[in-house]
Amino acid sequence: MKKPSIIEKIGKKIPDPVIIFMILYAVTLIITLFLGEMTFSMVAKDGSMITYEIKNMFTAENIRWIFDNALLKNWLSYGGGVLGTILVVMLGVGLAEQSGLLSTLIKKVGIKVSDRFLPFVLVFLGIMSSVATDAGYVILIPLAGILYAGLKKNPLIGMAAAFAGVSAGFSANLLPATPSDIIIGSNAKIFAEAQGIPFLNAAGNPLTPATMHYYFIAVSTIILTFVGGVITIKFVKPRLEKQEYCIPEDMHLDDFTVKPEENKALKWAGLGLIIGLIIVAILGFGPLASYTIETEGVVKEITPFIDNIILMITFLFFMPGLFYGIKVGAFKKSMDVVKAMSTSMSSMGYVIVLTFFSYNFLALLSESQLGTYITYLGATALEKMGLAQYPILLIIGFIITTAIINLFVGGLTSKWMLLGPIFIPMLYQVNSAMTPDIVAAAYRVADSSTNIITPLMSYAGLILVFMRKYKPEYSVGDLIGLMFPYSLGFLAIWSTVLIGFFALGIPLGF
Question: 145, 157 in Cβ contact below 8 A?
């Protein structure tokens, strides 16, 4: 048995993110006790100087603020109710997943593809499955192994390609407003506005949190599919096809075939999607169509459809999932639909616990002005290093920093809660070209690309179990070595794509 790697040893000593936020909350309180009433000045957007004062949060007035706002303002209503937005999206995506629709779609596409294009398709399906991560990890990766076993090729080849797409390409997608889009975008807006940073892109246009990266992630999906497929064919396949593997005696290579009733149900899902699209179109061109109002001589455009894009996307997941579930027999009565949505919500329990402590910590950081002070210190340090005039170096530096942290701290949301509040205002203060959408996109690139080479990723153990069916002696070190070319390739190419968008002034989304 191999000794644990250095990364594993360090990772085991790092507490859960919830505990980290509890500790940070206490540390922040103590720091304000010593730095209370200290003042510092920062340059405002108009070039003037603004003076800030750090609050001592142990005064009677500030202690009352902590308790009076802990539940509503600092948690449930934090950032305009971003927690509610995340939960609503999971209603639609969760229903589609619980009905079996997403799993069947993955099986349907995967089984019909030839061996020549299979690596590209598996990476693509993995990327697209990020709208419902469990479907990608639990269905696609073992399916990829069975597909390759059926072709009499090493199953680990297909599983590596699928794992690369599901996890390393997690933040890319062709669909807008995925759960990760909402988590990153909505919180980016909160982090920016908490310190007076305009939530605008480089052209000065307002950003829509859920779709501010859509052009970038759509292009990334195509590029990463190609990169992942090439890495599989040129690096992974030659390495694995010469290795021995075994097929479990109890494995039937038709376990993941699409049943006739599932094929019929897919047609019903298509009908549900068409009906959903018609309803959305009627709303978009009807009561939710854009209009203008004039207030005090200023004309302002109101965009109710865009403002409610989250509900529209949720509805378009809900309708096909509902129709599919009814036809396949998963939903025999109305209560079954309720149970399906409840099941999807049960997986969000950790998010609810995490956001309670993280949002209260972030609110404390903002109210005490300590967050602004950290931004001030970081921005001053970067300026003294001479990086203010080199925004591309700032982007690369942030990507590398996040990639390294990701090896030791798992979870997209928890790391974003830690890094976003600091780096979004800090990098903007150093160079105004570092708008919130650019910083958030850099985070997505780094976080996703290194998921597959950290044993601390929540699904790493499950993937290892799947692979050991074909190679019982397979270790964490073997898995990391297998996936390293994907991680390095994705990180390098994806970073280059982001820098290209930035250098050419191409908007990341809408």
Answer: no
pLDDT of residue 112: 75
User: Sign of the CA dihedral 497, 502, 507, 509?
Assistant: positive
471 part of a folded domain = yes
Res. 254: pLDDT tops 60: no
Other Cβ atoms less than 10 A from the Cβ of 114: the count is: 8
CB 277 within 8 A of CB 318: no
Q: Quote the CA–CA distance of 24 and 329 in Å, as a whole number.
A: 48
Report the length, in residues, of the chain: 510
Residue 11 to residue 491: CA distance in whole angstroms: 22
Read off the tokens for 25.
């909350």
* Residue 9, pLDDT score: 65
In the block, residue with structure tokens 């995340």: 86
Nearest to 510 by CA among 288, 273, 201: 201
Residues 254, 248: Cα–Cα separation, whole Å = 14
- Structural tokens at position 209: 């949190």
DSSP string, 118-182: HHHHHHHHHHHGGGGHHHIIIIIHHHHHHHHHHTTS-HHHHHHHHHIIIIITTT--SSSS-HHHH
Q: Which residues contact 87 (CB under 8 A, 6 or more apart)?
A: 345, 348
Q: Which two tokens stand for residue 17?
A: 């993110």
User: Per residue, what are the HEC states of 44-75?
Assistant: CCCCCEEEEECCCCCCHHHHHHHHHHCCHHHH
- How confident is the model over 349-359, as a mean pLDDT? 85
Largest CA distance in the chain: 77
Tokens of 409: 């701290």
H or E stretch covering 299: strand 298-302
What's the rounded Cα separation, in Å, for the pair 183 and 348? 13
**Paired residues of 302 in beta bridges:** 291
Most confident among 94-103, 353-362, 429-438 (mean pLDDT): 429-438
The answer to whether position 1 is within a domain reads no
CB-based contacts of 151, cutoff 8 Å, min separation 6: 115
Domain assignment of residue 275, yes or no: yes
Q: Is 114 helix (H, G, I), strand (E, B) or coil?
A: coil
CB 362 within 8 A of CB 194: yes
Domain count, the chain: 1
169, 123 in Cβ contact below 8 A?
Answer: yes
- Cβ neighbourhood burial of 139 (10 Å; 0-12, 13-18, 19+): buried
Asked if residue 133 has pLDDT above 80, the reply is no
Mean pLDDT to the nearest integer, 420-429: 89
**350: CB partners within 8 A, 6+ apart:** none
Residue 53 neighbours by CB under 8 Å, 6+ apart: 37, 38, 39, 369
Amino acid at 131: V
The label of the residue with tokens 């942290």 reads 405
> Domain limits at 206?
6-504
Q: Is residue 510 part of a domain?
A: no
